[in-house]
Amino acid sequence: MQIAENSAVTIHYTLTNSEGEVLDSSQGQEPLAYLGGASNIIPGLENALLGKQVGDKLEVTVEPEQAYGPLRDELVQKVDHENFQGVEDIQPGMQFMAQAPWGEQPVTVMSVEEDGITLDGNHPLAGQTLTFAVEVMEVRIATEEETSHGHVHGEGGHQH
Hints:
Blueprint: E1 7-16, E2 22-25, E3 32-35, H1 43-49, E4 57-62, E5 76-79, E6 95-100, E7 103-113, E8 116-120, E9 130-141, H2 144-149
Antiparallel strand pairs: 1-2, 1-3, 1-9, 4-9, 5-8, 6-7, 7-8
């Protein structure tokens, strides 16, 4: 069976950046499960996997526009220390959830200075070209429940 919309798919992958540094991998763990066509994984990877089947191995390079998007300057801002009342010892690299007009937004502390704290709301992989080494482990027709929920259930997928 080939990967298509409404396929329940599991893959093993290793993710590297343009310098070849390993950023993430499923090796030694359960494979990653996703539902074809449900936007469970980044578009560039999902599109490259369409039509593949069990046993296929491929290397996919995904540009930022088909991954986590370009870096957006408007998502970096300096806020007052008052926004962190009750939080001691704020350090660069710490992550928090911030309220944005569209809902909660994860942010990363970039710097802590006397006049404020600089936060970055970009995804940590935004602006990066990513390469995935992928092996397709399983492909099956998704159940009606998986399709209605928008994700794969069971091993490697979402547990209810």
